[in-house]
Structure formats: structure tokens, C-alpha cells
Amino acid sequence: MNGKNKKNTGDFKRIALMFPGQGSQYPDMGEEFLGSNGKYSRYFEISSEVIGSDILKIISGRDRNNSLDDTRFSQISIYSLSCALNDYIVNDLSINRECIDAVLGHSLGEYSALYSSDAYSFEQGVKLVGYRGKIMSEADRSAKGMMAAVLGTGISIIEDVLGGLKGRVFVANYNDYLQIVISGYEDAVGEAIKELKLRGVRKIIPLKVGIASHSPLMKEVSDKLGRFIEENVKLTDMKLPFFSTTEVAYRYRNDIKKTLTGQLTGPIRWVDSIEYLLKKDVGIFVEVGPGRVLSGLVGRIAQRSGRDIIILNTNKMEDIENLKNALKKEGIINEA
């Protein structure tokens, strides 16, 4: 059965397309996909022209002078691959757009989600993400910030510890019930880590960044981004519903500047966002981009909520084939 044979949209499972953020990159990501779908190499050619470096060489490790883990290159690489995969799913597979209940992203992933929603062109997104990566990289070199992932403990202990460090350390990411990222001044985050360990928290991983992303310490970077959006980005009405994971709400064209600037200074509320969509009976979550990080987070949140959902990803060609078969089975791909 294909999508054309369904009687009405209510017969379909609702879908959320979700886009990963920085940290999901890895060497040779997208190699299989581009090998089978060569036309999408053009996305990387456009990105390379804008930032002045060959993105595919950086991803493959053939560029000895630049690293994929450099913020300037990781962000644009993830954006380019995620957008290419999005267009493959939405256009080449002819997915029934009426089934898409939300497009959402984790931090950087919101830029890919906005492209998916048609808020701006791919080229405009490249310039925007390229600028974001540049100013964040500059801040990384000059700031005295720090971030750390706290694993295996609930939010109450963390909030209690941070209560003694007000204005210095903040919750940056509510990733799942037992995975929280904190962000703030380097010395204060160090104090928080020591206190959390004293309280029995066994696993805390300092992140390899020198900035305090998703905290008020990013105000200057946020202001720069806002001015860039105002002067260089033409936003249009969205054709797919964009869901902000910082505001836990659907957002529209006139909201986007506030959403993207606020994202830098406020926390990613991933748990609340997924719980919201689960309550709306979204039944299929598709991770569009490199890796499977978001798939794992959604799986744990859904399990806690007692919801039986389908989780798919585009990490490897095998995963993409599984996605095609699953969406065909649900009748929401409009192909024979």
C-alpha cells in the first residue's frame, strides 16, 4: 500500500524529523550515501565555496591542516549532510508531507530543521551556519567557559548543587532523564563537578569546548548572530511545522531570529520537547543526519513514558533502507 491509497491523513502515523547537533560528526560520515546519490555532493560544493575550504576533504581526513572537530567545520559539515539527507527523504522518497507533524533539531540541528521547513534556502543556511561556527570558534579561543555532561543522576541533585553557584553555572541541555549538560565559567563548573562527585555522582565528562554554550555567558555571541540574521538572512513562511526545542513550542517566520539567538543563551529542553510530541501521538521519529545520538535519547524518553514508537535514522545506507521499508509499510511514501 502506498500513501495515495490512504483515505485521509488521520490514517497515518504522525512523523517528527529530528536533526542532530555538533558532536554527531565523525570521519567519512555520509560517504556511503553520497556514493549512491552523487547529485547531493553539490551541497558540499556550495558549502565549501562559502567557507573557503573543501568540506569533503575535511570529513575524509584528506585535509591535514583542518580538523572535522573544529567548530568552523563540524557545524557546516553536519548542516550540509543533514540537508542533503532531508531532501532525499522528503523529495526523492516522496514522503507524504501531511504526515510530518514537526521538524526539530538539537542545538545546531535547529538550523537544518529550519531548512527542512523552508524557512530559508540551503545557500542562506550555509552562510548563517558558517557565520555561527566562526563566531563560536572565536569565542572558544578567547572565553574561559566550560561544559560538562553529567550522567546517571536526576536533575534534582544537579539543580541543588547549581543553586550554590547561581549566575556562574547553568543547565545547558536536558538531554534525557539521566543525561544533563552543565555550562558556565570554567572555575565554577570545576567546583560543581567536585561537589557532584562528593554527592555520589560517578560519571561526569568534561566536553572538549572552551565556551559555555546555552548559557547567559553567550550573550555577546548571541547579539552578533542577531545582527547577522537581521542584515543577511531572508526568512520565508514555513511549509513544514518547525518546533523549537528551547521554547518547547511551534515557531513561525517572525519568531526565528529570537529563537536562534535565544538558543545560544538558554538551555536545550530536549526531554520536554519529546514528551510534548509523544503526547500529541507522534509515532515515528526519524533522525536526519550523522549518527544515532538523538535516536537513543528519544528511545529512553519514550520508554519512560510507556509509548510504543518507531525510531529510524539515516546514519548508514543500511539504516536508510530500513527507513524506506518502514515508511512504505506505514503507507506514507508516495512511490510504487
Explain briefly what this protein structure is.
Residues 18-316 form the Malonyl-CoA:ACP transacylase (MAT) domain. Pfam families: Acyl_transf_1 (PF00698). This protein has 336 residues and is of the alpha/beta class.
What is this structure's SSE topology?
Elements: E1 14-19, H1 31-36, H2 41-51, H3 55-60, H4 71-92, E2 100-105, H5 109-116, H6 122-142, E3 145-151, H7 155-162, E4 169-176, E5 179-185, H8 186-198, E6 203-206, H9 219-232, E7 242-244, E8 249-251, H10 256-265, H11 270-279, E9 282-287, H12 293-305, E10 310-313, H13 317-329
Parallel strand pairs: 1-2, 1-9, 9-10
Antiparallel strand pairs: 3-5, 3-6, 4-5, 7-8
Helix pairs in contact: 2-4, 2-6, 4-5, 4-6, 6-9, 9-10, 11-12
